[in-house]
Specification:
single chain; 409 residues; alpha/beta; two-stranded antiparallel ribbon; globular; transferase; Nucleotide-diphossugar_trans; transferase activity; Glycosyl transferase
């Protein structure tokens, strides 16, 4: 049974399990008659061959209230795009597979590059940004939801709970962030949230002092979850990070653009498991090592934009304070895991903490060396200002790809 705790900064919507199955979906269907919902699925081609996506589609095929599903397909050639079209054809809803590497979209990328507005690196951030652009070009949805394509424990009720807070017209929420426990194979997972973000935010408060932004981030049970729903009028001004700081970046944008009372977090699952990244201690540009550095930079940039002054001494102190906070939390995680019959390898956890501590210094040095770095993809409002026809050209390019490259039978 979930608790009913509210932290006072943002509203937490719990799964108190008092509604019969299907009631929430039915209510959403009524709202969706006048408030259309689009689901975005950022996807690597390799995920079509993974253990999760086929099951996700089986669940989504039973969701009647979706107006459209937009699949952003990355790292695919023409043959793979045609195969992906056939793979997603089981969806009964109106759905579109965007081939992000197609010649037409590559040409549009070159055009944006000439304007100085192109995303600077491939990845999930660029994929999500392109899908949002297509959604805005369609101009027919009131709510956008997004979740990953590698959730092996997926259930369609996750989506019900994710979209309900923003589709219900009597609720004040403009954005809902999903949360859940990260448990799988008898282990306590979610290393980056548990061992980096949580102790880092505790350490930041001690080192730089009270900041409303830090309290806001600490309010989220799972700030790195890839599931959120948002009302579409906020999308044109949303600045999407191009690196691994996507989830923190979106929360920061909500902090910048929305009142706290219009942001909530919602418990969408009792159990959640997906693909796990390698720690990658030997390569700072890969895996959780790269992710941890980018997350730290995202937090540092946001605090600096709000007036916090950082020096090399700040980051050295922050590293030491973080390390102590992380070890203290590790003791809490260990006892929690043991009491619930879950495994937790304290040696591996401490190795992760040591790597993350070094990456705090790394991220701090990158920030100090280039404090004006703006690893954000331009907002769609800015793109529209530079080229008012671009969204229509994007929509046309996607349509032309769909017409030319028919799926394999």
């Amino acid at each position: 049974m979930a608790d009913f705790h509210q932290n006072g900064n943002i509203t937490t919507l719990h799964n108190l399990r008092s509604r019969p199955a299907g009631h929430l979906a039915h209510e959403i269907s009524v709202y969706a008659e006048t408030r259309k919902i689009t689901l975005i699925l950022p996807c690597l081609y390799s995920e079509l061959e993974g253990p999760a996506l086929a099951g996700i589609l089986d669940e989504l095929a039973q969701v009647s209230y979706l107006h459209r599903i937009v699949v952003g397909l990355d790292q695919a050639d023409e043959t793979q795009y045609r195969h992906a079209r056939a793979f997603f054809a089981k969806l009964p809803q109106n759905h579109t597979v965007i081939w992000n590497d197609s010649p037409r979209l590559t040409a549009l990328q070159s055009h944006l590059n000439d304007l100085g507005l192109a995303p600077q690196e491939p990845g999930k951030g660029k994929n999500v940004w392109s899908c949002i652009g297509y959604l805005l070009a369609c101009a027919d949805s009131s709510v956008m939801a997004i979740h990953d394509c590698d959730i092996v424990t997926y259930d369609r009720q996750m989506l019900d709970r994710l979209v309900y807070p923003v589709v219900n017209p009597t609720f004040p929420f403009q954005m809902a962030k999903g949360f859940y426990p990260r448990i799988g194979d008898g282990k306590l997972n979610g290393r980056v949230t548990r061992l980096l973000v949580s102790p880092l935010l505790i350490a930041m408060k001690k080192v730089v002092g009270d900041r409303d932004y830090l309290d806001y981030l600490r309010s989220f049970r799972y700030p790195l979850s890839g599931e959120f729903a948002i009302r579409t009028p906020t999308l044109p001004d949303l600045r999407i990070p191009s690196d691994w700081g996507l989830e923190i970046g979106v929360l920061s944008e909500a902090w910048r653009n929305l009142a706290p009372k219009s942001v909530c977090q919602v418990e969408i699952a009792d159990n959640y498991d997906h693909k796990h990244q390698d720690l990658s201690p030997e390569d700072a540009n890969q895996g959780l090592s790269r992710m941890s550095t980018d997350i730290c930079k995202a937090i540092f940039r946001k605090l600096a934009a709000d007036g916090t002054v950082f020096t090399p001494n700040t980051f050295r102190t922050l590293k030491a304070t973080y390390y102590r906070s992380a070890l203290d939390l590790l003791e809490s995680y260990y006892t929690d895991a043991r009491m619930n019959g879950l495994e937790l390898d304290r040696h591996k956890e401490e190795k992760s903490i040591e790597l993350f501590a070094e990456n705090i210094i790394r991220a701090g040095q990158v920030f100090l060396d280039n404090p004006h770095e703006t690893p954000f993809i331009p907002t769609w409002n800015r793109v529209h200002s530079a080229d008012p026809e671009f969204l229509l050209r994007l929509k046309a390019a996607v349509s032309d790809d769909l017409a030319e490259f028919t799926p394999h039978s």
